[in-house]
Amino acid sequence: MTNTSDLIVVGSGILGLATAFLAHEQGRSVRIIDSADRPVGSSIQNFGHACFTGQADVIQDTARHARAGWLRAAQAAGFWAAESGTHIPAMTDVELQVLREFAEHRGDEVTLLTGPDVGAALGNPDLPAVGGAHLPLDMRVDPREAAPSLAAWLDREGVTFSWNTRVTAVGDGVVATTRGDFTAAEVVVCPGFELMGLFPQLAEAYDVRVCTLVMALLERPSHLRQDLAMLTGTSLARYDGFAAMPSAPALRDELARREPALVDCVANLMATGIPEGLLVGDSHAYSLSPEPFIDEDVADLLIDRSTALLGVERPVVRQRWLGRYADSPNTNLVLERPDARTTVAVVTSGIGMTLSFGVGHLALSGEQIPGF
């Protein structure tokens, strides 16, 4: 067996798998190296919500690449991908004003809705919303299916996987591992929050840390669709596209008065449906070495607020977990080339799944996104 290939991808998260998928489309021989025996990290712990529309203007071309990549991968690998969009209920006039400004800014990427219409779309006709919006370009996948299915398809297509293999160093086309050295014409390293272990100088330069998120899987009542995707006012204050609107500062002030507990736990209150149930969350806490404990008050708060919007009177919790992803207070994306044959790609915000195929395109093409 040869240890040489056209491309080595370090990391089997969705960004690594997306990069491998794109390289395979180009006809390259690809090896993926990962310390686990299957995708089990951040890529299966998220909402499965591809929120392309809410991202910053500067990244929209990359978001379009990402959306196209998701559709091609889903068709090839056979995993579920719904083009059902995102619904956002506006519970106050300020939230509605942010949505109106965003709709004027983005045009037909945003459809404004009446309060009754957004309530009906969310399965809760009694929702006292003052209005809302639908983002038709957003997509849904099942995070517990998508990455494992894509990995299995790539394996069947001839991509080589080196599982249970820890990478110890990367440079000039050589990947040193606990199973010996592998070589390639090009190496793309997608280590997520483990960047510190391979490229500590990069991690320190960008202040990369770990973000932990309190999340839960609930039973999904029959009145809620499997392809449900709901963002809320906290999302409008968080995602860069919405947050650039003129009324966003007023929204942040209103949230601090109206929902101080959500603001205190840095919540992005949202929910998505998957075959196994209803995913709800999430809070955000930041540390270089996070503790594994879940605060029950935070978990209950997120469940209470999300299910109230969806008309779920008696939520039944099936699972809880503390999700993790790489974060930086200074940038959304680390895309560096420490040598001519090595690219390091880490999405340092909660949009890695959304932009995975787009960032993979950047890593393989050598393009950059200044200001992101």
From TrEMBL:
Keyword Flavoprotein in record: yes
One Pfam family it belongs to: DAO
InterPro entries: FAD-dep_OxRdtase, FAD-dependent_OxRdtase_HpnW, FAD/NAD-bd_sf
Residues in FAD dependent oxidoreductase domain copies: 6-363
GO-annotated molecular function: oxidoreductase activity
Keyword Nucleotide-binding: no
Gene3D superfamilies attached to this UniProt entry: D-Amino Acid Oxidase, subunit A, domain 2, FAD/NAD(P)-binding domain
Entry keyword set: Flavoprotein, Oxidoreductase
NCBIfam families the record matches: HpnW_proposed (TIGR03364)
UniProt cross-references to PANTHER family, sorted A to Z: D-AMINO ACID DEHYDROGENASE (PTHR13847:SF286), SARCOSINE DEHYDROGENASE-RELATED (PTHR13847)
Family: Belongs to the DadA oxidoreductase family.
Protein name in UniProt: FAD dependent oxidoreductase domain-containing protein
